[in-house]
Amino acid sequence: ATADARTRDDILAQLNLTQPSVHVASFDRPNLALAAEPKEGNRTQRVVSLAKARPGLSGIVYCATRNATEDLAEALEKAGVPALAYHAGLDAGLRAERQRRFLLEDGLTMCATVAFGMGVDKPDVRFVIHADPPKTMEAYWQEVGRAGRDGEPAAAWPCAVISGRRPPRPAVSATSAGVRVGRAMTRPAGPRWRSPPCCAAASAWDAGA
Description:
This protein is of the alpha/beta class.
């Protein structure tokens, strides 16, 4: 699992392990094509255009608020993209039913808060869109990591796209975790970021989205 140094130390303490052998490996996923852009213009239209460019594929759209999940799911449905909303405010039975549908159906997009994802192991999620930036980089990696778990190459179809934003400076402190994540996501990170191993997928995001 994705765990920073503090979390790893806490795990060792809780398990009362003394001088254990700790193995920390890379969580790089070569089959994921990652892209980022500032959140500008109409967010809903942008999310709809990204999803419509990938018909018949399953995806997740992460949102910061419950209302946003409902609004985006409605907009996607109106645009002809099968979509559902998922958040902690829904009845437990309805959440379970929507999760079941997402796991079993093809071509369904789930618009969700962070309440969705833990324990959801759908191998053929082909894209993850962040309508709002995650609170931490660890959360970001966990969420995009829910795409492409079947290990399928991303050359034909892109697996992940991150639509990050930089919140207005007057409204949010420059030390806010959300601002830092947004800046990191929209800052060029070298060849791996713009031209990942799955170059065809990256080109598809740039051209088709």
